[in-house]
Design goal:
CATH topology of the largest domain: Rossmann fold
Number of strands: 27
CATH superfamily of the largest domain: ANL, N-terminal domain
Number of domains: 3
Strand content: 25-35%
Number of helices: 13
CATH architecture of the largest domain: 3-Layer(aba) Sandwich
Largest sheet: 9 strands, mixed
Strand order of the largest sheet: 2-1-11-10-12-13-14-15-16
Shape: globular
Helix content: 25-40%
Radius of gyration: 23 Å
């Protein structure tokens, strides 16, 4: 039954699914299957339980567990109460967890048995008044059993459009993670936008192995799937064999992933037979090389769609849509979102010129929690300053040039790592690469490339340097190439260039 009244609350997307598709499968993990009716029931019971523990409007509740159905039910239950879901990566260890709990001032922490040993004692973190350890529908820390909770619907709290419903932490690729406050308007608009641009229908089956605490996994994939009344197949983490088996057995139609996985599938001889049900591919977390997109299209007859967005934009801000897809671009502004390119004095630059990407629209975060200075630095005159360099072509399509912080200045000349990476990806032996600026006494920085080679293919440092010099200006070509087994990545699949610089500095 759909709750009475007109409460504005993100959790109502689960109510709508239960009303229209009560017995349809909403969520799958391994052999565990939740219909929309069962998912709504779980959400309502957890909401009742949390309300009994004193959680209400405006309270912050931390979610610290890997991808699992309990995470999903708790997330919507917290939001149903008008409280704020503070989504923390399950990859974080005790010290990192302690820092984020202190920073976000949570009232209650929900975790699972496998992570409970990392939870700091309450005396060391007085802001956390309660810790709930939830395992297989049972709260282990108390005698309360979620399954025995009241079965009647728990009415959602009517929230304002600008009320926060979630705090998601930035990736921390440039420093300490910051908590981006996302509102009901932000996430509802994002979910609606994704469904519209991806032509989502209730028959869709989406795969999510990316962490739900991340904007791509939680906001883009999970919320849009439930908004469209589709089915979400949830994996605890990435495992290629399980991924392929799931795509085949669950007949996945929407394949969301990151460049690393697309590259591995592209280079796998037998991967084509597993993807026969897939009709839509989407890549995020980091830029996809145009050469990979072309090769994927040739092999699978599928387009890898990309968009531009970040935690602060509640997922996508632009979308390279189905109607006029441009390889290499991240598309045009999504819906009523506005995008422009500005110089270092915040003046808009002409089309085709590069500058900082700034964004305005209903998807922009409210700010960083408890960080007024950092908020003021990125939210200026109504625009979010992304810290990314881009350009708009004559048709208004956005092309990412690079991160401002990743720009290499070598001997006074600007080198954009993405351009060098695009060149390296056209070499037959390169599977994955990252280009960074390393300290140099004479030039300030020198262009250095870190390359993972394709299995069974060989190339030398000299080969790759000469290959680049024939295709781009000599000053842009790498001066040093290091071959690596793997490139360091965040849980969301983003290459950690800061970690590369730190690890290899002086080598």
């Amino acid at each position: 039954m759909y709750p009475k009244g007109n409460a504005l609350n993100l959790s109502r997307i689960i109510d709508r699914g239960a009303l229209n598709f009560a017995q349809k499968i909403a969520l799958i993990q391994d052999k565990n299957r939740y219909t929309y009716d069962r998912l709504k029931s779980a959400m309502d019971r957890v909401a009742f339980y949390l309300s009994e523990r004193g959680i209400g409007r405006g309270d912050r509740v931390a979610l610290y567990m890997p991808n699992r159905p309990e995470w999903v039910a708790a997330y919507y239950a917290i939001i149903r109460l008008g409280a704020v879901a503070v989504c923390i990566s399950s990859a974080y260890k005790q010290k990192e967890l302690e820092h984020l709990l202190n920073e976000s001032l949570v009232s209650l922490l929900i975790t699972c048995d496998e992570l409970s040993s990392r939870v700091p004692v309450r005396d060391a973190d007085p802001s956390v008044k309660d810790v709930v350890i939830w395992e297989n529908d049972r709260v282990l820390e108390s005698t309360f059993d979620i399954r025995s909770a009241k079965r009647k619907p728990f009415l959602p709290v009517d929230c304002g459009l600008s009320d926060e419903c979630a705090i998601l932490f930035t990736g921390g690729t440039t420093g300490t993670p910051k908590g981006a406050m996302l509102t009901h308007r932000n996430i509802l608009y994002s979910a609606q936008n994704v469904c519209y641009h991806e032509r989502a229908v209730p028959a869709d089956v989406a795969l999510c192995f990316l962490p739900l605490n991340h904007v791509f996994g939680g906001v883009h994939i999970m919320n849009s799937t439930f908004y469209g009344c589709g089915t979400l197949v949830l994996h605890k983490s990435f495992d290629m064999d399980r991924l392929l088996a799931s795509v085949q057995t669950e007949k996945i139609t929407r394949f969301y992933s990151v460049p690393t996985v697309f590259i591995r599938l592209l280079n796998s001889a037998g991967s084509r037979k597993y993807l026969t049900s897939v009709n839509y591919c989407f890549s995020a977390a980091t830029s996809m090389a145009s050469e990979i997109v072309r090769q994927w299209q040739d092999k699978f007859n599928l387009t890898i769609h990309e968009a531009y967005g970040m935690t602060e934009t509640s997922s996508l801000a632009t979308f390279n849509h189905l109607y006029h897809h441009k390889i290499g671009s991240v598309g045009t502004p999504a819906g009523i979102v506005e995008v422009k390119i500005v110089d270092d004095k915040d003046n808009e630059v002409p089309r085709v010129e590069s500058g900082e990407i700034v964004i305005r629209g209903p998807n922009i975060m409210k700010g960083y929690f408890n960080r007024a200075e950092e908020t003021a630095a990125v939210l200026r005159n109504g625009w979010l300053h992304s810290g990314d360099i881009g350009r708009l072509d004559e048709d208004g399509y956005l092309f990412i040039v690079d991160r401002i912080k990743d720009l290499i200045i070598s001997g006074g000349l600007n080198v954009y790592p993405t351009e060098v990476e695009e060149t390296l990806y056209t070499h037959a032996a390169v599977e994955e690469c990252a280009v960074v600026g390393m300290p140099h006494t004479e030039y300030g920085e020198t262009v250095s490339a870190f390359v993972k080679k394709k299995k069974g293919l060989e190339c030398s440092e000299v080969d790759l340097i000469e290959y680049c010099k024939k295709r781009i200006a000599a000053y842009k070509a790498p001066k040093k190439i290091m071959f690596v087994a793997e490139l360091p990545k965040s849980p969301a699949g983003k290459i950690l260039k800061r970690e590369i610089r730190t690890s290899f500095s002086g080598k």
